[in-house]
Design goal:
The protein is mainly α. The chain contains nine helices and no strands. It folds into two domains: about 120 residues, no CATH class; about 40 residues, no CATH class. It is about 60% helix and about 0% strand.
């Protein structure tokens, strides 16, 4: 059920129109390397990994491993275009938390997300010498944790 909901959400997001500057049903916005069909392929490639994220539960290292596999599948499906890399990170964390707390008590979800991500900034960003990703470069320049800080805080913008 969660897999179906995630897939439908990914499709609804890209089909939401209009979205000036972003990919939607009408155009590709500022993106020359992707269109709505690229997003359809990506959503289809991501879907099989949702159940794997749920099974990982709160094991962050396992979630990360499956997340990298999911990213690889996305890049293969989209011929190297990054349509959902950030979304894959958040899906891994949310689905891992859902796998841990079960489907019965979503009131525990934010606390579980905080638990899963508690060491994320320390492990990923504390000792960066040569940033490789946009998120790492952003952190080195600003000392703001970006999506990692949002995850460590339990996604307060969502809850």
């Amino acid at each position: 059920m969660i897999t179906k909901l995630v897939y439908e959400a990914l499709i609804c997001e890209v089909e939401l129109t209009p979205k000036p500057g972003l990919v939607d049903k009408i155009n590709s916005g500022s993106h020359k390397d992707m269109d709505i069909h690229t997003f359809y392929k990506s959503a289809y490639a991501i879907s099989p990994f949702i159940e794997k994220f749920l099974t990982c539960k709160s094991d962050f290292e396992q979630l990360r491993k499956v997340g990298f596999e999911c990213e690889k599948a996305m890049f293969i499906a989209t011929d190297g275009v990054n349509t959902h890399k950030g979304m894959i990170f958040s899906l891994a964390v949310f689905c891992g938390a859902i796998g841990s707390v079960g489907y019965r008590d979503f009131s525990l979800l934010q606390e579980e997300i905080r638990y899963i991500c508690k060491d994320l900034i320390k492990k990923d960003l504390a000792d960066i010498k040569e940033p490789k990703t946009h998120g790492e470069r952003f952190y080195v320049q600003t000392k703001l944790g970006g999506i990692r800080a949002e995850a460590v805080a339990g996604y307060p913008s969502v809850f």
